[in-house]
Design goal:
Keywords: 4Fe-4S, Iron, Iron-sulfur, Metal-binding, NADP, Oxidoreductase
Protein name: NAD(P)-dependent oxidoreductase
Strand content: 15-25%
GO molecular function, one term: metal ion binding
Number of domains: 3
Oligomer: single chain
Distance between the termini: 72 Å
Radius of gyration: 24 Å
Cofactor: [4Fe-4S] cluster
Number of helices: 20
CATH class of the largest domain: Alpha Beta
CATH superfamily of the largest domain: FAD/NAD(P)-binding domain
Organism: Alterirhizorhabdus solaris
Shape: globular
Number of strands: 15
Helix content: 25-40%
CATH topology of the largest domain: FAD/NAD(P)-binding domain
Structural class: alpha/beta
């Protein structure tokens, strides 16, 4: 009887891929960790306990078959592991890199609860699909017979790209409209290369283009075409624009030069990585080189900003956050990486004003303390009287999260219903908006969320859209009858 390759956690310790030394990785935008060698991936996969109730899968928004592809990896059956991983996710190697596994699958691993350290699920997931790309196992999309119907996807982020892929595979003509000059949304322009190198995203986009999906770049719905015009052109539409309006800070001096929004800063950096001309970077406005940088916020976007500033050669980088470490919304792994790279965290602190005559020179802040829980259940920060202090700053980056843009007005569609938060209102059974045949998914429905949830929503809305289009085709009169009429 063959030896069981699993449950080795009792003798094999948790071992993530080694990170490059902080001093070395601070000099470039390459990913900070290499991937496993085959033997190490097999070893770490074998630590899975194959538990009867796989909490890792339950807490994964995609409900990936994690224990199953871990076992296949441990047995050396990598192609089968890839095919199983690919069955539930359109971007497994991207999720393996940027998902907050410590809050999702790994954070709910049974052997983590037992004190043995979680299985390194994300690193194995990355390894499986990177290997599949190298070995040629990632096959082209082979669409079914042409259905004679087309869909339009507004927004080329993870939700939109997922829906585009799944609908094209079903035989629909697919057009993707995006206001940027490259697809990927925040995967391309929001997330730095040290977390997600851009060729990883671009090869996914190239695969979609090769399948016959048409991308319309630099296309702004509302000016290049109204939503009504796109509805006339297509049999169904998906709105998957994400949420991009930065949350504001109300404080004296916030409009002074050098106080910038996180997404403007990150987009400029990522564009430079592509080799683009970026005037606001080249004139120094969005370049941290030689500057005292203060980033305000405690989420993953704030961590992206502080770590980017380090790589740009900032003189100092501080992160100002109004709660403590235990209550920050960002990944604890990202916080640790930032600390290793020289970022200083100023906990329980909030900005009160920005100094500077035309150009920022400092941030005046106050110490905070945590009071009673707010409506979300988190303890609300409140100012500590008499605790004011000042930080020198030549560049201040606001990273307080994102809200929805005014899509009804932006799209010229006043009858598009929104919630009180500005997100699109949908029927959660059909995933349609208030307009027939217009669907919505991703952050524009959820609010700012995770990439893995956007992929899940893209997968779900493809199912709903497919049912809608089949019913529409069935209800349509035969061509000869329509012509006669």
């Amino acid at each position: 009887m063959a030896e069981n390759p699993m449950l080795s956690f009792v003798r094999v310790g948790q071992d993530y891929p080694a990170k490059r030394d902080a001093e070395l990785r601070n000099d470039d935008f390459r990913e900070i960790s290499d991937r496993y060698a085959i033997a190490k991936a097999e070893e770490q996969s074998s630590r899975c306990s194959q538990c009867g109730v796989p909490y890792c899968s339950t807490h994964c928004p995609l409900h990936n078959h994690i224990p199953d592809w871990l076992r296949l990896t441990a047995e050396g059956r990598l192609r089968e592991a890839y095919e199983l991983s690919n069955a539930t996710s359109t971007m497994p190697e991207i999720c393996g890199r940027i998902c907050p596994q410590d809050r999702l699958c790994e954070g709910n691993c049974v052997i983590e609860f037992s004190g043995h350290g979680a299985v390194t699920i994300g690193s194995v997931e990355k390894f499986i699909t990177d290997t599949a790309w190298e070995q040629g196992w990632v096959e082209p999309i082979r669409p079914l017979a042409d259905r004679g119907q087309s869909i339009g996807v507004i927004g080329a982020g993870p939700a939109g790209l997922t829906t585009a892929e799944l609908m094209r595979a079903r035989g629909y003509e697919v057009h993707v409209y995006d206001r940027h000059d490259r697809a990927g949304g925040l995967l391309t322009y929001g997330i730095p290369g040290f977390k997600l190198e851009k060729e990883i995203v671009m090869r996914r986009v190239a695969r979609l283009e090769a399948a016959g999906i048409t991308f319309h770049y630099g296309f702004a719905v509302g000016s290049d075409a109204t939503l009504a015009q796109l509805r006339e052109k297509h049999d169904a539409l998906l709105i998957a624009t994400g949420v991009y309006k930065p949350r504001a800070i109300k404080a004296p001096g916030v409009g002074v030069g050098g106080v910038v929004d996180a997404l403007d800063y990150l987009t400029a950096s990522n564009r430079k990585g592509f080799g683009d001309a970026v005037p606001a970077f080249d004139d120094g406005s969005l370049d941290a080189a030689g500057k005292n940088v203060v980033v305000i916020g405690g989420g993953d976007t704030a961590m992206d900003c502080v770590r980017t500033a380090v790589r740009q050669g900032a003189r100092s980088v501080k992160c100002l956050y109004r709660r403590d470490r235990a209550n920050m919304p960002g990944s604890q792994r990202e916080t640790k990486n930032a600390e290793e790279e020289g970022v200083e965290f100023v906990w329980l602190s909030a900005p009160e004003a920005f100094d500077g005559d035309g150009q920022v020179s400092g941030v005046r802040a106050a110490k905070m303390r945590l009071g009673a829980p707010d409506a979300s259940g988190r303890r609300a920060p409140e100012a500590h009287p008499g605790s004011e202090f000042r930080l020198d700053a030549d560049l201040v980056i606001k990273a307080l999260g994102f809200d929805a843009e005014d899509l009804p007005k932006l799209f010229g569609a006043d009858d598009l219903s929104v919630t009180r938060w500005g997100t699109l209102r949908i029927d959660h059974k059909t995933m349609q908006t208030s307009l027939d045949g217009v669907f919505a998914a991703g952050d524009i429905v959820r609010g700012a969320s995770l990439v893995v949830w956007a992929i899940r929503d893209g997968r779900d809305v493809a199912e709903r859209m497919h049912l809608y289009l089949k019913a529409k085709a069935k209800a349509a009169p035969p061509l000869r009858e329509a012509v006669a009429a």
